[in-house]
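thread from #wetlab-drylab

HS: before we spend reagent money on co-crystallization trials with glutamic acid, can we at least see a predicted complex? here's what I'd submit
DV: go for it
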Amino acid sequence: METVSKKPKDMYESVKEQFENAANLMGLNSNIKKILSATNNEIIVNFPVRLDNGEVEVFTGYRVQHNNALGPYKGGLRYHPSVDINAARALAIWMTWKCSLAGLPYGGGKGGIQIDPSKFSKSELERITRRFTYALGDNIGPDIDIPAPDVNTNSEMMAWIADTYMATKSPSNRNAFSHVVTGKPVGSGGLEGRDRATGYGVVVSIQAWADWKKTSLDGKKYIVQGYGNVGQWASIFMKEKGAILISVQDASGTIYNENGIDPEELLEFASKNNGNVNGFPKALELKSSTFFSLECDICIPAALGNQITENNAENIKAKLIAEGANGPINPDGESILLRNGVDIIPDILCNSGGVIGSYFEWLQNKSGELWIIDDVMPKLEKKVIHSFNSVVEAASEYHTDFRNAAYIVAIKRIEKTYIQRGVFP
Ligand code: GLU
């Protein structure tokens, strides 16, 4: 293989290039292009937290609000060493497109803290989360900006955010603010099924792809990168389709079994192993670098961004890549994949089940209702299939790939709003 010395494009460079490509292809109004090229607000907060040993540490939190033409900013908070202003920008912009494509009344936002949460105790994480919420103040709110879980954040943390935010409001109407955040635990205003919503949406979109290809998922071999919320649930739903999980990679290692790994058994093992898949007894350990070149039908990257680049795209054997993660493929990697005839279900479509579930939770809180899972999952499925079909249609109209098509559908909806409303003053 040729040696590539240039550093692959990062997520922010990727999202800008993707936007540029789609905007040119659709002939986006040049004034609206200027508006969408900038992020509306970038909030950086430094806040102190007392650690268990009595020392105080100052943490830096980010929240980027890209665009709110369609409604309040919406998007997750991630706790990871890779979080910085450019990562938050890229992820916020992807949320704008994702919410628009899904037909939700939301704009895009994203944020987080640059920490490795495994280095902190639970009570430290609680204090960090609460103090971050307090520092964000009224930059978030049910009709302003609504955070949710993302990488390394979970429903318990969302409950801390809701509780902290609500505590800053007058006791007489505190409960009117529970939808300041989504992805809360069921019992604290959370939605039944929100836990599995992203993984479910991933598999609904893969099934829609299979229907479009006139093929079945039964017996298809697939690999998953990341065994967090998205990877786990996607694998469980892929099993229901009869697909065979042959390899899983996470930060701890890469495991492989050509006869199949049972997603539930792996989940049970990982939950007793700090969430890690390495050491799973019914699989072999592989060298990490071999993961993406494994012989398989479908690859589901469901971890971090920038995993498939010009440095490894050529080796990929999968016929479909379903982007459970945000931004797992950079544009140079994507060009190689498209040239090789690999189909890609882009992140803003593939993983939109999560924010669609969040929207249902927000509606549920707003109207004081409690929905049941049997009502939630079919509603979610319908929305993802509708988006998939609109992407297929745009791809054929513009003679382009699914990512460009998804961007065009998403951007058109925002363009229409700006044209209808004009620009103040
Ligand atoms: N973090 C998820 C995403 O990237 C969910 C966002 C949300 O529910 O607001 O789509």
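DV: Residues 373-397 form the longest helix (25 residues).
HS: ok that's useful, forwarding to the group
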